[in-house]
Amino acid sequence: MQPIGFFDSGIGGLTVLQEALKILPEEQYLYFADTEHAPYGIQPKEKVRELVFEAVGFMAKWPLKALVVACNTATSVVIEDLRTTYTFPIIGMEPAVKPAVSLARPKRVLVFATELTLREEKLKNLVARVDAEELVDYLPLQELVMFAENFEFDEARIKPYLQTKFARTDFSRYGAVVLGCTHFLFFKNTLRKVLPPHIQIVDGNAGTVNNLKHNMEGHFAAGPGSVSYFISGKPAEKDYFERYLGFYAGLEKV
What are the residue ranges of helices labelled H in the chain? Predict the structure, then answer.
């Protein structure tokens, strides 16, 4: 077996895996959730680097056809170091700032992300490349990560949190928001209800999977497809993850 690896600090990367299962359904996948050490967004940078290298070292034993670092925080901290260490293609998450700026112009763009992602130079460099008019602002929504990890999607709990976080934001100035954390996609329907109707919600999942497909250079499997799951290096029950995949698939149909 030569699987495609998916790594995340927890279950957020399942939203990217779902996209891959639609586009590349015949591939074999290995999904690694470092749930025992989540959330990454409030961890020191060096700790995140250590955890990611430990996880990828475990996954690379298969060996991998490619690796998707389906975590914006991990991508921002360690993606370049991974690429100098391993020879298989490594695809990272990148907040979809460029398409959001194009969609929102002349209005502004608000990037939602974890605290560590917002502090890292990788995001600042990305924005500097695509935001010559300085239209991009930032808002951390760190708590959504653990809401997702704990399968807390009840709008009665999530909406007040979002309303409090948005209380000082004048959304009439904005045309789009960027979901800069894969966990946040589990809340896109609730976000849609809280945000004004003119706001467009943008994420980078489809672009990431298209990038994966491009980097595989035609080396596609003939099936049957499968997914193996691990939690912090230990085999995990499919039911735990498929509960999230089922929930997310339901969101996509709304």
Answer: 14-23, 45-59, 72-85, 97-104, 115-119, 121-130, 143-149, 155-165, 188-194, 205-215, 238-253
Catalytic site residue 181? yes
- Which one of the listed residues 113, 181, 185, 209 is annotated catalytic? 181
Indicate yes or no: pTM above 0.70. yes
| Pair (72, 106) in one structural domain | no
Q: What is the pLDDT of residues 150-180, one digit of tens each?
A: 999 999 999 999 999 999 999 999 999 999 9
The structural domain count of the chain equals: 2
Catalytic, 159? Answer no
- Name the catalytic one among 71, 82, 118, 145: 71
Q: Does 86 lie in the same domain as 10?
A: yes
CATH code, domain with 190: 3.40.50.1860
Q: Do 103 and 10 belong to one domain?
A: no
